[in-house]
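Bump. Still looking for AraC-type DNA-binding protein structure tokens.
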Amino acid sequence: MSSHEFVRAGAGLGQGLGGMVVTAVGYRSEGIPPTLHRGLPSPYLTLIFSLEGPVVGGVTPEQARGPGASRTEIVVGGLHQQPAYIAQAGSEAGVQLAVHPLAARTLLGLPAGALTSELVTSGSEVLGKRAAEVRERLCEQRTWEDRFATLGTYLRERAAAGEDGAPVRNEVAEAWTWLARHRGAGTLTGLADHVALSPRRLTSVFRAETGLSPKQAARLMRFQHARNTVVRSVAVGRAPDLARVAAECGYFDHSHLVRDFRQYTGVSPTAWLAEECRNIQAGGQLYGEE
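Sorry for the wait, here they are.
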């Protein structure tokens, strides 16, 4: 018999981190047939500590299932415009965190823009030996509460050690806040005026910090809002009205929403929901601030 478990961390994990960790979810699946999961792009960095074997994935289904797949027990993922394909075995467990991209310098020791050359980066290479030791401890612990406490302590240690690093430019931080407040709506000209930079200069410094242009980040935020709206409907047993979701989330029309879904998931909204319905009903897939 198959089972899925998703447990969201309480406020204690992020205490003292000032919003650097947006969400943290413990997950466990057992007795499921081997399948291919789509890890979707989002406006947050992804940090995963696997509690079983390595996370196996790739940029295409063929790579994820073949000899060229990436295999790492600690995953760091930057901001991307395409799904990551994960080859899931019969059972898996881990803790997945959504990390604010402007916290990358403090928590990871490098800007988010440095993570975009690869879809997935080995967390041990980025975070060092201490992260591997923390993962071993997480594997030994038996409750999600203890695991979240361990991760919270570890992240606060990294934050304290990274406080003296190079700060994020004020214009980039304010631009991100403006985009998040508008949920991806608004124009580049309006954003550039708000932070008192030319559109070209803003795009340059924003991309250097995050790996994305402001327009790309805005599209991800809008998609995130739409995705979470759809997920909330399914979670309460209600079929989502995609035309209404499109209108509420700032898309031109239903077709515009479908095009973005196809870019970020590789399939239509209906096909993605069919794949993820069981995870959603078990409490998964709601990701980020909402």
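The mean pLDDT is 91.

Edit: fixed formatting.
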